[in-house]
Amino acid sequence: CFSSLEFRDVLSYGRTSPVTSYKKLQGWSSDQNNWNENLYPIWEEGDPRWKDSWKGGRVTAKLETDSPALVGSNVTFVVTLHFPKCQKEDNNGNIIYERNCTQDPPAPEEQQLYVYNWTDWIDNCGWENCTSNHSHNVFPDGRPFPHYPGWRRRNFVYVFHTFGQYHQTIGRSSTTFSVNTVNITLGQHVMAVSIYRRGHSTYVPIARASATYVVTDKIPIFVSLFQKHDRNISDSIFIKDSPITFDVKIHDPSYYLNNSAITYKWNFGDGSGLFLVSGSTTTHTYTLQGNFTLNLTIQAIIPVPCSPVTPTVPLPTSAVTAGASSNSDSSTTLESMEDNPDGGCHIYRYGYYRTGISVVEGILEVNIIQMTSIQRTESQAENSLVDFVVTCQGSLPTDVCTVVSDPTCQVSKSMVCDPVIITDECLLTIRRAFEEPGTYCINITLGDDTSQALASALISVNEGSSSGTTEGVFIFLGLFAVFATIGAFVLYKRYKQYKPIERSAGQAENQEGLAAYLSNFKAIFFHSSTERNPLLKSKPGIV
Predict the structure, then answer these.
(1) Contact 166, 100 (CB under 8 A)
(2) Can you tell me the distance from the alpha carbon of 30 to that of 476, in angstroms, rounded to the nearest whole number?
């Protein structure tokens, strides 16, 4: 039954594979074993038999991995079969046609339900007949299928190949398995898989796939940086005098480091020194502008079984004095091997992260210090006008955006954004029109190229007398925040007027002050905003 072909000849897909000595992977076999070509035929790519390997079209396979893997941990692979349109696997492992799925061309009437009804013929044969039928119970190397519960419902044979060895298993349309990397050399490797389906006299090849995986002795890590007032978190430009949060994620899907002692050593590159912390999240505030290089070193102390200690042979009496120094060194060596207080030994692994960032001046705070309604004549009293006087701290803004929402601050009613030019003090007046009386949530955002900050308020606009005056009650909600996302804004853009505040006694418009009451209600309506996309995108508009 066996040909002269070896597993490495079959699974290398025509590529030359030199015979090399590898460390054995647990549960795997050498690819120099013979392959049963009569039971598991081999088709080269382009062989016309592929088009008939599956009813209704070709099956494709996708092989995925959670690589990179720290040496000593497990690397996991997942194979998923994708069937032709309108086909799927049922609970019994049969392949059936999906209901209400249009096929092109339509399936024959006698095949309206099953593509492959493997259950029918398996159940119709007795246990002795099925087990004696070697074509449905052995792998390519002749080993029998494992007879665990449900094994006869697994109609696909998966043969994996890597590192000069192979692993074979039966499964359904998707299978997952893991390999320990302790005996795999560091570097990049290829995992290949060949998939066969159950046939009446032989197994039929249906798909192949491969994936690259990496084994490393460096702890794989990813670091994300976040800053409240930063307008574009991906540009590596951050704001002075505002804390930056550094969040470290260790890639350890097999939980190899779960029992390890992990420490994080930070050097933020600004002369503040080294910081050693035990948590994966830390914050740092840069007080100077400039370009900085930050470095992170992660150390993991991994407990492992100790190697047996070889007893020291006693020296002759005459050599005790001469060898005192040597014995002292030996004692020190043994002590260092067993310096773990719980009686175990350990190994050290390290991970490294390095990046450059720029720190600039940014907008740190926005304040609404005054709100005034504008008195208008009866002929002009179509809308109620309100002026908001706004100040900010930090850099000078280049654009301003006003969003009017419902009292819950969840449903946006209108949004207007404009560029502004401020050359000296950050002090400006924003005039806003309200078409009808009611209570509104007002969000005013000032921004520049790298930062933005928000102030919010609730305002009650009441219908005034015949003269058209409008009164409101303003409740200040907060000073420090990044703009929180307030739903999807499907709004038209309008032009409105912005003017520097004037304090001259001869101001043409008569203004009536509004009572303002300070409060910390902002936290109720805006929970720890993490706005990343700039709100201030619109062109100037008129309300």
Answers:
(1) no
(2) 74
Q: Which residues contact 453 (CB under 8 A, 6 or more apart)?
A: 229, 363, 364, 365, 366, 392, 394, 445, 446, 447, 480, 481, 482
The bridge status of strand 261-267 relative to strand 290-304 is: antiparallel
Q: For the chain, how long is the longest CA-to-CA vector?
A: 120
**DSSP conformation class of 111:** G
For the chain, domains (ranges, CATH) are 48-123+136-216 (2.60.40.1930), 221-306+344-360 (2.60.40.10), 363-375+382-461 (2.60.40.10)
Sign (positive or negative) of CA dihedral 389, 391, 397, 401: negative
Q: Using an 8 Å Cβ cutoff, are 357 and 238 in contact?
A: yes
**pLDDT digits over 435-481, tens only?**
788 888 888 888 888 888 888 888 888 765 333 333 333 443 333 33
Residue in this structure with the two tokens 């998707």, named with its chain if needed = 174
Residue 528 to residues 304, 457, 523, 524, Cα–Cα distance (Å): 43, 16, 8, 10
